[in-house]
Write a structure and sequence with these properties.
Chain lengths: 284, 636
């Protein structure tokens, strides 16, 4: 019963949280750039307007993949917030990511094609750290279940500082923030145009936007796990983490995929793996 | 027992028939019937023996052991005869044959080879292997009928030697059944060597210079492994106090007495399952016609290698030698997954992915806890089905579009929707939740983290390697799918149909891929868990909650394409964005100097980032060190 409630809460509340997060993001970003910025609810207006537009597509298949993307992001989050197996959550998130990339491949357009390739490269970059984070959480809490990890009474980030750092590093990739906004961009006036989402418009673009909101809330859930021993600490920690990401977003220019892949694997290999080995030998 | 003898002897008998009959309608009908009978036979065996645990049988036949010894000597002589074609640098091949034959002859002549009471056996693992060989193997033979006809149609310069082709194909199946049913290690050794011989002949089938050289390489590397096998037998009959060549007794005796021969024979398994540093033979094997690749990769040959390692897992469990064996598998998994990213030749991608997945299975078996063994057996099943499907799919695509390059598979979803769907199912089966490969990977990842030797958390290292190895897997499969689903402008539906036999084979395997994913808990419960329980007295199974989640994911995978039918028709179709310089609606744009150009897209292969050559050399060196260490720590 409780599980069902969690799932319903996720499905209903997450897009609102995600939209608000996006609104806050836009305001803070604007202030960092000495602009006033849009109203807090602007992301919702945008999406509603997109739904009202005529659907435009290059072929009949492409929107279908994006619907799958949304469905699998929702399923992933449902797994996570109902306390399921954390590794399975990561694998399900990969399924969602693959559908997003397939949607971008489908139109066979140069810009979205590059976006798709880069999206997959980004997945290759962050996947090891996600798995290592799950392994680390298991080694400390002795459970693969989000339910038990969240209920762990000690502060997880104290045991997993390296893993948490590595996780923050790839969070930038996952949130599609600069310097790792390789596959899509916020603004259409660049060499990428809009990358993976170039060929999407109207309702299907709205679907992608909502899926991203869901995804962002899910990622914040991951950050929350590191501080889950006490929600009074955890919620500010999540907000601070997101603020750091916005700050990085606004202070770095886009880097190359070479750097993305290399740096995230090195960070995973150094911070993540060393941390795991220390845990393995110290925590019995 | 009769059904075992049927599976052992019937394919061999039919192979003799196919050695005589020319390729005509009658021969084709006979091949189809034989395939059906072999598949039916393996299903019948599963039906009769499943749930009965270990059953062994005495073979009453005068001088049967002498016949097997004679067979080994004949085989060596035949191989020596085949060495006429070798080059100077391949001198080691006849040397290996002579040493091996010498060892076996020495064992036999000194009268030291003990009798084995029950030379044949069947247990749940044998049943699973028999089903893989019997069903997938025969589907591939079935497919070969029309494939070989088209193959010679496409390559008129090549001499049609289909008689020897089908002869070896069926003989191969017999030998594989021999490998999984023999309880006498000397018999198993003969069947083992027959699979080496068969793959040697099949790889050399095109008779080109490249094919011949690759065939010799496969022969040489597998003989090197076979040397380990012969060494293991020599140790068992000469030095081991237990003095037995009874497989069941070897396993029951445990690592204290049996670790040395087990590691020697596992070394043979490493070579046969094409782990680094032996991987080059399997890559070279691609020159052969596609059904051969499919057979070698999915249901025979490499599966014999991991079968023997899985079989020995209880002995390897908790030993340092087993741990280093597992590391060989893990390093192979990581390196070949990365190398696969750089490949655009579909068959090479498949080959590297096979080696990677076998590496995972070797890692599981080397660790050898009940959880990892469970994952290893399931990986074997799922890999056989999906990989068989993918190879046959690529074979059909190659005959239809004239290329096996992934770059040429642009728009397959429009061009050849049927083949595209088949390929997508195969690829999904290889790497995405909720299909079997991913479930098994998930399970073994969780098992590795908790495994230890003498209280040391050794499994964590393997789990880390796995974490890094999984990421490139995702990349190379997903970008291949991307090529298949992308829709280039102005593409028409392809002409010419895929032959009926090929379709039948593809559909059977595609259905099997989805069915094994759907029935995964049943497969685990009915056949894998009893085997694990019989060895470890405990077992794993997916919790009910996770089973439900898997079913939901699979249902989504199947149902979501249906939503496509309810697609809103009001969507307006427009040309793709080409920087505002579109010309017409065929995907052309106005380039510099006013020239109209076609926009084409290519995948990322990161060849400048990951070098196939350097990575191969590095991993060969690392794995050689690991093998040396594996032997060095055998006494620990």
């Amino acid at each position: 019963m409780k599980t069902a409630l969690c799932v319903v809460a996720w499905v209903v509340i997450a897009p609102f949280l995600g939209g608000l997060l996006a609104g806050v993001d836009r305001i803070i970003t604007a202030r960092m750039q000495s602009r006033v910025g849009p109203p807090l609810l602007q992301p919702f207006y945008d999406v509603l307007k997109l739904f009202g537009k005529q659907g435009v597509a290059v072929n009949v298949f492409q929107n279908y993949y994006m619907v799958c993307f949304l469905v699998f992001v929702i399923v992933t989050g449902a797994l996570f917030f109902s306390g399921g197996d954390i590794l399975l959550t990561i694998f399900a998130l990969a399924v969602a990511g693959v559908f997003f990339a397939l949607g971008a491949f489908s139109p066979n357009s140069p810009y979205s094609n590059i976006g798709a390739e880069r999206e997959l490269l980004q997945m290759m970059s962050y996947e090891p750290i996600l798995i290592i984070a799950a392994i680390g959480m298991f080694m400390v809490t002795k459970s693969w279940h989000v339910h038990d990890i969240a209920g762990f009474q000690k502060p997880l980030f104290v045991f997993l500082p390296g893993v948490f750092l590595a996780f923050l590093f790839v969070l930038t990739i996952k949130l599609r923030k600069s310097p790792f906004d390789l596959s899509t961009s916020h603004h259409g006036h660049q060499e990428l145009v809009k990358g993976a989402t170039t060929e999407f418009a109207g309702p299907s673009l709205a679907v992608i936007e909502i899926a991203h909101w869901y995804e962002n809330v899910l990622l914040m859930g991951f950050v929350y796990l590191f501080f889950a021993f006490n929600w009074v600490v955890a919620i500010p920690a999540v907000l601070v983490a997101y603020f750091i990401e916005i700050f990085i977003d606004n202070t770095y220019a886009r880097l190359t995929w070479h750097f993305t892949l290399k740096s995230s694997w090195i960070v995973a290999g150094v911070c993540g793996v060393v941390n795991i080995f220390l845990i393995a030998f110290l925590v019995k | 027992m009769n059904i075992l003898l049927f599976l052992l002897l019937f394919p061999a008998a039919m192979s003799l028939v196919f050695a005589i009959l020319p390729a005509n309608t009658f021969r084709n009908a006979l091949v189809r019937i034989s395939c059906l009978l072999i598949a039916a036979g393996s299903v019948y065996a599963a039906f009769v023996f499943n749930g009965q645990g270990y059953q062994s049988f005495k073979v009453e036949f005068p001088h049967i052991d002498m016949i097997f010894f004679g067979g080994e000597m004949l085989l060596s002589l035949f191989l020596l005869y085949k060495c006429i074609g070798i080059k100077k640098h391949e001198w080691y091949i006849p040397a290996l044959i002579i040493v091996q034959a010498g060892i076996m002859a020495y064992c036999e002549m000194s009268g030291a080879v003990p009798e084995v009471d029950n030379a044949l056996y069947i247990d749940n693992l044998s049943i699973i292997m028999a089903l893989i060989i019997g069903i997938i193997g025969s589907v591939i033979c079935y497919y070969a009928i029309s494939y070989m006809r088209d193959y010679h149609h496409h390559n008129p310069q090549m001499k049609d030697r289909q008689r020897s082709f089908f002869f070896i194909l069926f003989f191969f199946l017999s030998a594989m059944f021999g490998v999984v049913f023999s309880n006498n290690l000397v018999w198993l050794y003969l069947f083992w060597e027959i699979t080496t011989l068969s793959s040697f002949i099949l790889i050399g089938y095109p008779k080109t210079e490249e094919a011949t050289r690759n065939a010799y390489r496969a022969l040489g590397l597998n003989l090197l492994g076979g040397l380990g096998f012969a060494g293991g037998i020599l140790y068992l009959v000469k030095f081991c106090p237990e003095h037995t060549v009874d497989l069941a007794r070897v396993i029951a005796s445990g690592p204290g007495l049996m670790l040395i021969p087990v590691v020697l024979i596992s070394f043979a398994g490493v070579a046969k399952s094409a782990q680094m540093p032996f991987s080059s033979w399997l890559l070279g094997a691609m020159v052969a016609p596609t059904p051969v690749s499919a057979l070698l990769h999915s249901s025979t040959m490499v599966k014999a290698g991991i079968f023997i390692i899985i079989k020995f897992a209880p002995v390897l469990s908790g030993t340092w030698a087993g741990y280093f064996l597992a590391l060989i598998g893990a390093v192979t998994f990581l390196m070949t997954s990365i190398i696969a990213v750089t490949q655009s030749n579909a068959k090479r991608v498949l080959a590297y992915s096979t080696i990677a997945n076998l590496g995972l299975i070797v890692a599981c078996a080397g660790i050898g806890t009940y959880e990892t063994l469970w994952a290893a057996v399931l990986l074997t099943i799922f890999h056989a089905v999906s990989k068989g499907l993918l190879f046959l799919g690529v074979g059909s695509i190659e005959h239809k579009i004239g290329s096996r390059d992934i770059e040429d598979m642009d728009g397959l979803i429009v061009n050849r929707p049927g083949l595209a769907v088949v390929m997508l199912i195969g690829i999904l089966g290889m790497f995405l939740a909720p299909f079997g490969m991913l479930i098994s990977k998930w399970m073994c990842l969780e098992a590795f983290v908790s495994s230890s030797i003498f209280g040391l958390p050794t499994g964590v290292l393997i789990a880390m390697i796995l974490a890094f190895g999984s990421a490139p897997t995702l990349f190379f499969w997903a970008k291949w799918m991307g090529k298949i689903v992308s829709v280039p402008a102005g593409l028409a539906k392809g002409e010419g149909r895929v032959p009926g036999d090929e379709w039948t084979a593809l559909v059977v395997l595609a259905v099997a891929t989805v069915a094994t994913a759907a029935l995964f808990p049943v497969i685990s419960w009915v056949s894998v868990e009893p085997y694990i329980v019989s060895l470890y007295h405990q077992t794993v199974s997916l919790s009910q909650g996770n089973t439900i989640i898997m079913s939901i994911l699979l249902a989504l995978m199947i149902l979501l394409p249906l939503s496509f039918l309810a697609y809103p028709k009001k969507t307006k179709l427009v040309p793709r964005y080409l920087g505002g310089a579109n010309v017409g609606d065929k995907g052309e744009f106005l380039g510099a100097m006013g020239v109209v150009q076609q926009a084409t897209m290519r995948n990322y292969y990161l060849a400048g980032f990951f070098s196939e050559k350097k990575l191969t050399i590095a991993s060969v060196l690392v794995t050689i060190c690991l093998i040396v260490t594996m032997f060095a720590v055998v006494k620990l």
